[in-house]
Amino acid sequence: MTDDYELIDSGDGRKFERFGKFTLVRPCSQALWRPKDEPAWGRATATFDREEGNRWHGRGALPKEWTITTAGIKFKLSGTDFGHLGIFPEQRTQWKWIRETVTAAKETRGTRPRVLNLFAYSGGSTLAAALGGAEACHLDAAKGMVQWARDNAALNGLADHPIRWIADDAHKFLRREIRRERRYDAVIFDPPTFGRGANGEMYKIEVSLRETISLVRDVLSDDPLFVLFSSHTPGLSCQVAENILGQAFPRAQRVESGEMLLEPAAASGAFACPSGIYCRAVF
């Protein structure tokens, strides 16, 4: 399967990546080692840094938008003012797992699993679930990101797939779903370290995470598949995530976690780059 994403190298607090035919250098705070082949970095299409505020260098060499395929999913990319592109490729392993798990459940159960994706950004996990045959609900506080995800759905032939597109505060939405007795077989969430909801509601992960998980627990169906939590918050470890999910979901058959990694080609000799953690409660 063709994959348009590649981690070329990393080091000195940066990462050197390829997205289709364009190569970019961007910050990566955990890359404390030396690059494998730093002279090659000078050939990057564009770079982004935060040394004097958020700054692109060579941004004009990038198109306004372009499309790549990774983990079997098509994504529209665009360089934002914050250095993001509309994709977090460290989630690729999770996207493959979601798709495989949902596909197997649909075949076993004979019905579409219902999957909820919260803090859903540009929709990688939503699309993985939908491509696996799920009926999905995609929620993000930013209307612009919800539209970006819808554009990605269209790219993947999912414009008419049963996906609900919601721009709202996650906690308000979950409370409504609980009142309406609408339940989901799987819930995916990647909350921000700090963020604001659609109407300015504040989210701080150290304060809000336990409530999020409590609401997620209450919106699960009687025969759930999984709960998948991921985070880019510095200092939030796999053990912390396992403790929280294990306590919240004692019915789970297993709770498993790990680092999300950007992994280079083995032949390159470059190091893998840690980029957050994931934790799954599997029923």
Quickly list its features:
single chain; 283 residues; alpha/beta; Immunoglobulin-like; Rossmann fold; 7-stranded mixed β-sheet; 5-stranded mixed β-sheet; 6 helices; 27% helix; 31% strand
Could you explain the architecture of this structure?
There is one protein chain. Helices cover 27% and strands 31% of the residues. The protein is an alpha/beta fold and 283 residues long. The chain folds into 2 domains: 73 residues, Immunoglobulin-like, CATH 2.60.40.1180; 194 residues, Vaccinia Virus protein VP39 (Rossmann fold, 3-Layer(aba) Sandwich). The strands form 4 sheets. A 7-stranded mixed sheet has the order 10-9-8-11-14-16-15, with helices on both faces. Strands 1-2-3-4-5 form a 5-stranded mixed sheet, with no helix packed on it. Helix 3 links the parallel strand 9 and strand 10. Helix 1 packs parallel to helix 2 and helix 4 runs parallel beside helix 5. The protein is globular, with a radius of gyration of 19 Å. The mean pLDDT is 95.
